[in-house]
Design brief:
Strand content: under 5%
Distance between the termini: 45 Å
Structural class: mainly alpha
Order of helices and strands: HHHHH
Oligomer: single chain
Length: 113
Protein backbone atom coordinates (compact mmCIF):
# COMPACT_ATOMS: atom_id res chain seq x y z
CA UNK A 1 0.00 0.00 0.00
CA UNK A 2 1.33 3.42 -0.88
CA UNK A 3 1.67 6.16 1.67
CA UNK A 4 -1.74 7.72 2.27
CA UNK A 5 -0.25 11.00 3.46
CA UNK A 6 1.41 11.69 0.10
CA UNK A 7 -1.74 10.81 -1.83
CA UNK A 8 -3.94 13.28 0.04
CA UNK A 9 -1.67 16.32 -0.04
CA UNK A 10 -3.72 18.09 -2.75
CA UNK A 11 -7.09 16.79 -1.57
CA UNK A 12 -9.64 19.31 -0.31
CA UNK A 13 -10.29 18.52 3.39
CA UNK A 14 -13.80 20.01 3.33
CA UNK A 15 -16.95 18.16 2.34
CA UNK A 16 -18.16 18.87 -1.19
CA UNK A 17 -21.28 17.98 -3.12
CA UNK A 18 -20.73 15.02 -5.46
CA UNK A 19 -22.36 14.19 -8.76
CA UNK A 20 -24.41 11.04 -8.18
CA UNK A 21 -24.26 10.05 -11.85
CA UNK A 22 -20.48 10.13 -11.74
CA UNK A 23 -20.44 8.05 -8.55
CA UNK A 24 -22.64 5.30 -9.98
CA UNK A 25 -21.02 5.22 -13.40
CA UNK A 26 -19.07 2.01 -12.66
CA UNK A 27 -21.55 0.16 -10.45
CA UNK A 28 -24.96 1.38 -11.67
CA UNK A 29 -26.06 1.18 -8.02
CA UNK A 30 -25.64 3.99 -5.48
CA UNK A 31 -25.89 1.59 -2.53
CA UNK A 32 -23.12 -0.60 -3.88
CA UNK A 33 -20.98 2.49 -4.52
CA UNK A 34 -21.51 3.74 -0.98
CA UNK A 35 -20.73 0.29 0.39
CA UNK A 36 -17.43 0.18 -1.51
CA UNK A 37 -16.48 3.69 -0.38
CA UNK A 38 -17.41 3.01 3.26
CA UNK A 39 -15.40 -0.23 3.38
CA UNK A 40 -12.37 1.53 1.91
CA UNK A 41 -12.82 4.43 4.36
CA UNK A 42 -12.76 1.94 7.23
CA UNK A 43 -9.51 0.46 5.91
CA UNK A 44 -7.97 3.93 5.61
CA UNK A 45 -9.07 4.91 9.12
CA UNK A 46 -7.54 1.75 10.60
CA UNK A 47 -4.29 2.28 8.68
CA UNK A 48 -4.03 5.90 9.80
CA UNK A 49 -4.77 4.95 13.39
CA UNK A 50 -2.06 2.28 13.43
CA UNK A 51 0.42 4.59 11.77
CA UNK A 52 -0.27 7.39 14.25
CA UNK A 53 -0.01 5.07 17.26
CA UNK A 54 3.27 3.63 15.98
CA UNK A 55 4.74 7.12 15.60
CA UNK A 56 3.51 8.23 19.02
CA UNK A 57 4.87 5.07 20.69
CA UNK A 58 8.36 6.35 19.93
CA UNK A 59 7.72 9.17 22.40
CA UNK A 60 6.14 7.01 25.08
CA UNK A 61 7.92 7.03 28.40
CA UNK A 62 6.97 4.51 31.00
CA UNK A 63 6.81 6.07 34.43
CA UNK A 64 4.77 5.34 37.49
CA UNK A 65 4.10 8.89 38.59
CA UNK A 66 1.24 10.86 37.19
CA UNK A 67 2.90 14.23 37.79
CA UNK A 68 5.53 13.58 35.15
CA UNK A 69 3.85 14.72 31.97
CA UNK A 70 6.26 15.75 29.28
CA UNK A 71 5.09 17.81 26.36
CA UNK A 72 7.08 16.95 23.30
CA UNK A 73 6.73 19.45 20.47
CA UNK A 74 7.42 16.78 17.83
CA UNK A 75 4.63 14.63 19.26
CA UNK A 76 2.23 17.57 19.17
CA UNK A 77 3.16 18.38 15.56
CA UNK A 78 2.61 14.78 14.48
CA UNK A 79 -0.81 14.74 16.14
CA UNK A 80 -1.79 18.04 14.52
CA UNK A 81 -0.69 16.77 11.11
CA UNK A 82 -2.94 13.73 11.39
CA UNK A 83 -5.83 15.88 12.64
CA UNK A 84 -5.55 18.08 9.53
CA UNK A 85 -5.74 15.15 7.11
CA UNK A 86 -9.02 14.82 5.22
CA UNK A 87 -11.66 12.50 6.61
CA UNK A 88 -11.15 8.85 5.50
CA UNK A 89 -14.51 8.97 3.69
CA UNK A 90 -13.30 11.93 1.60
CA UNK A 91 -10.08 10.08 0.79
CA UNK A 92 -11.99 6.93 -0.18
CA UNK A 93 -14.43 8.93 -2.32
CA UNK A 94 -11.55 10.55 -4.20
CA UNK A 95 -9.91 7.15 -4.71
CA UNK A 96 -13.17 5.72 -6.05
CA UNK A 97 -13.73 8.59 -8.46
CA UNK A 98 -10.15 8.29 -9.72
CA UNK A 99 -10.61 4.56 -10.26
CA UNK A 100 -8.02 3.55 -7.67
CA UNK A 101 -10.27 1.19 -5.71
CA UNK A 102 -10.45 -2.34 -7.01
CA UNK A 103 -13.48 -4.35 -5.98
CA UNK A 104 -15.30 -7.45 -7.06
CA UNK A 105 -18.91 -8.41 -6.85
CA UNK A 106 -20.08 -11.52 -5.10
CA UNK A 107 -21.99 -13.92 -7.23
CA UNK A 108 -25.55 -14.40 -6.13
CA UNK A 109 -26.26 -17.81 -4.71
CA UNK A 110 -29.39 -19.44 -5.98
CA UNK A 111 -31.00 -22.42 -4.35
CA UNK A 112 -33.17 -24.18 -6.90
CA UNK A 113 -35.40 -26.80 -5.38
Amino acid sequence: MTDIKTKVQGLEPNVQARDIKRLVRDTDNIYQTLNIISKRATQIAVDLKHELHNKLEEFAVSSDTIEEIHENKEQIEISKFYERLPNPVLIASAEFLEGNIHYREKEERRDDF
